[in-house]
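Today's session is about reading a structure prediction critically. Students often jump straight to the picture, but the first step is always the sequence itself: look for stretches that repeat, for charged clusters, for runs of hydrophobic residues. Only then move on to the predicted structure, which in these notes is written as discrete structure tokens rather than atom positions. Here is the chain we will use throughout the hour.
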Amino acid sequence: MLAAKDFLTPAHEMGFNWYAGVPCSFLTPFINYVIDDPALTYVGAANEGDAVAAAAGAVIGGRRAVAMMQNSGLGNAVSPLTSLAYVFKIPLLLICTHRGAPDLNDEPQHELMGQITGALFDTMSIPWEAFPDKREDVQPTLNRVVDYFRREKRPYALLMKKGSVAPTKLDAPANHFRARTTVIGRPFKNQSVEQRPSRSVALARIIEATREIDSVIVATTGYTGRELYAQEDRDNHLYMVGSMGCASSLGLGLAMARRDRHIIIIDGDGAALMRMGNMATLGAYAPDNLTHILLDNEVHDSTGGQATVSPGVDFAAIAAACGYAHAMRSTDTRSITNLLCADRAEGPRFLHLKICGGTIDNLPRPSISPASALKRLSICLRQT
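Below is the predicted structure for this chain, in token form.
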């Protein structure tokens, strides 16, 4: 059995200083230690997929990051692991507990996942090994992880059995509460869809109000990323080609890792609804260099225009309740310029912009591969 510091100290010496996760009793010593260590960062994610995406954002920002979860939540992380970390070649460490292991008398809900956890990692092409439970095994394990990162630039997993780490007391639980802010703008009522701006007009405003040298634009999957690419392909753009709903959590990790850059997340109503829990995480953790713009056309545009339930959802009020420092409703794209050019508030900023459906004729797909786009962005982030 290890003490938490037996793993976390050498991991820190190798650059692992950023953690996101969802608690598991097997992980309690680790999480408590990370929370109490001022040299380490911990984000308590709403679900395991958001933890992976947030860690991926931190990696893009230059950190070595870890996503922690129990294996029963591994299913929530499949999409960002396979269509984000794998496709974009983002090396992050997964520490996953082995609930329902064959030799463990555990709760019935863990039985099947306990049997298939290793096979699930194999299916996702994620190499894995047992989490070390002896001090002399820690450094060789970390060396294998980092060697794989350098060769393949993709995730690596450690599977933790019960009792691997000795108990660690949590001395000072963090309080991430932020006061509710006032929503700017009237609720949307009785406005015809034809009166709303197009996505292209909104994206043009965003491009106009940002610079490559000091900002990063993360565009959600579907038509948003494709239209942004069609408008202007810039080195500071990242087009999410999958992992629907994870643009906001990736943007969170990136904003926390790179406080010197203005991180702009362009979200959609369908994507935001899919992972709405991450709005609470952003409201609690996101710094003042993050702006979250939700373009709401009330449909899943890229799959045929099926309606979402967004007409009944006040996203700006949700953002305000979650602790965003600034929350606005609008149907005027000038609000984008006002928001992006305004002085930073004490936390993240949010805009709920109603737009019309549809897209431009002959909408292209990005010709640059996801991995190449990320490499290009990484070079851009190294510039001052």
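Discussion point for the tutorial: The first strand starts at residue 16 and ends at 21.
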